[in-house]
Design a protein that fits this description.
Number of domains: 1
Strand content: 5-15%
Distance between the termini: 33 Å
CATH architecture: Alpha-Beta Barrel
CATH topology: TIM Barrel
CATH superfamily: Glycosidases
Strand order of the largest sheet: 1-2-3-4-5-7-10-11
Number of helices: 16
Number of strands: 13
Bound molecules: 5-hydroxymethyl-3,4-dihydroxypiperidine
Length: about 475
């Protein structure tokens, strides 16, 4: 089974199509730990986490959920839950220490083992090649603002594809390049912590170029490659029914969504994005001849990550309270080119990330892609929520809010499928509680609770609920 294998029957009201993939997702730096073992070198996140004030409680991913040493136990847990797919990322500095040269045999051996464990349990591995852990040496050479990083990424992916491509056919090149570019290089709340708007736009282009080159690598080295990219697409809503707020929403849509969708799926950058950022950099010097053809190589599926909607207003002095940035305190905005837009707190109950719960945004994103960029299978590559989970005296984690969150979002996925949207799978974020970037371990997204002092795992009630969804391929009736 691959993510892009057509599902065989339409969903009925209660059920999902036969063959629908049910998975969970993680990322290397967030779960693996073993930060300096077996030849792994530092990534930008190792450096950033050691920068004073960058991560809450000065937490680091040094140990994380210790997945590197507990892979057998963790895969057994996945099998127990009935997962049919597992989306994980490869740590570039583990596979290719320093970001150049030969592969690290011990690093590849770890992923070999993970893949074999998964296949042994009948779980489809879905590999993300890059989930934000750039080797520090490449950042020292300019990071994603440097064009050469795209070519380094293709070299690294070649090593991984040659080794794992005989057993893994479903690959995604990048996870959420919006975050890599704008949180990493504009607002600076993510590694490498730079606050350089022009560099953020350069990073966008070089990430996209790396994606395109990566698709070429996968086609060359992976038999029956199923290629994709994962975007955190945003459902952007104008705050008031005014032309000014509509224009603000269109502007942000360009900078959040179309800046990636159009080059990948239509072979050009959107005119409004070029115009809105022209004062920051010369796009004609950034984009070389042939780049857009490379970037728009056909892909087999698109991964969609969705958590919360985005509410915007034209900055006219009358906006209601401006929202706290969901990614931590920041003195710089990630919204390069949208200085005249306010970001508001959308209505709805809040998760611990202060993200409003509104599942209709997931429907809107899926339906919009299927309408405007048709004929592309979609997978929900991440969806989930952080809550204040704790182990109660009876040994349970009663995370009913997370169950409600998952149920409401899966209801919207099913509605999209019923309306003809080609959604092939759903990956809950996350399997395990883990290192939530600048929030450290203060935000728990897992359906499995991790006691970080002992590394013991406990199924939360949401894991049991999700297992039931998988077993029945349907949403259970609400009690
Ligand atoms: O933890 C992250 C993940 O790494 C990328 N998508 C969003 C998640 C929650 O913030």
């Amino acid at each position: 089974m691959t993510v892009t294998q057509p599902v065989t029957s339409a969903a009925t009201d209660a059920s999902f199509p036969t063959g629908f993939l049910w998975g969970s997702a993680t990322a290397a730096y967030q779960v693996e730990g073993a930060w300096n073992e077996d030849g792994r070198t530092p990534s930008i996140w190792d450096t950033f986490a050691r920068t004073e004030g960058a991560v809450r409680n000065a937490d680091t991913g040094d140990i994380a959920a210790d997945h590197y040493h507990r892979v057998t136990e963790d895969v057994a847990l996945m099998a127990d839950l009935g997962l049919t797919a597992y989306r994980f990322s490869l740590a570039w500095p583990r596979v290719q220490p320093g970001g150049g040269g030969a592969a690290n045999p011990a690093g590849l051996a770890f992923y070999d083992r993970l893949v074999d464990e998964l296949l042994g349990k009948g779980i489809t591995p879905v590999i993300t090649a890059y989930h934000w852990d750039l080797p520090q040496e490449l950042e020292d050479a300019g990071g994603w603002a440097n064009r050469d990083t795209a070519y380094r990424f293709a070299d690294y992916l070649t090593l991984a594809a040659k080794r794992l491509g005989d057993r893994v056919s479903t690959w995604t090149t990048l996870n959420e390049p919006w975050c890599s570019a704008f949180l990493g290089y504009a607002s600076g709340v993510h590694a490498p912590g730079r606050r350089e708007p022009a560099s953020a736009l350069m990073a966008v282009h070089h990430l996209l170029l790396g994606h395109g080159l990566g698709v070429g690598v996968l086609r060359e080295h992976v038999p029956n490659a199923q290629t994709s990219i994962v975007l955190n697409l945003q459902s952007i809503r104008p705050s008031r029914p005014t032309p000014a707020d509509d224009a603000a929403a269109t502007k942000v849509d360009g900078l959040a969504n179309r800046i990636f969708l159009d080059p990948i799926l239509r072979g050009h950058y959107p005119e409004d994005v070029l115009a809105n950022t022209a004062h920051l950099l010369d796009w004609s010097a950034l984009v070389h001849d042939g780049d857009l053809a490379e970037i728009s190589r056909p892909i087999d599926a698109l991964g969609v990550n969705y958590y919360t909607p985005t509410l915007v207003a034209a900055r006219d002095g009358n906006s209601p309270a401006v929202r706290q940035d969901g990614h931590g305190a920041t003195s710089a905005s990630p919204w390069v080119g949208a200085d005249d837009v306010d970001f508001l707190q959308p209505p709805g109950e809040l998760t611990m990330m202060q993200w409003a719960v509104d599942a209709t945004g997931l429907y809107d994103v899926l339906a919009r892609i299927s309408r405007e960029y048709p004929d592309l299978p979609l997978m929900v590559a991440e969806n989930g929520a952080a809550y204040d989970d704790y182990l109660d005296p009876t040994g349970r984690i009663r995370d009913t809010e997370r169950i409600d969150y998952l149920r409401s979002h899966l209801t919207e996925v099913r509605r999209a499928i019923t309306d003809g949207v080609d959604v092939r799978g759903y990956f809950v974020w996350s399997l395990l509680d883990n290192f939530e970037w600048s929030y450290g371990y203060s935000r728990r997204f897992g359906i499995v609770f991790v006691d970080f002092a002992t590394q013991r795992r406990w199924r939360k009630d949401s894991a049991t609920w999700f297992s039931q969804v998988i077993a029945t391929n349907a949403l259970p009736e609400q009690k």
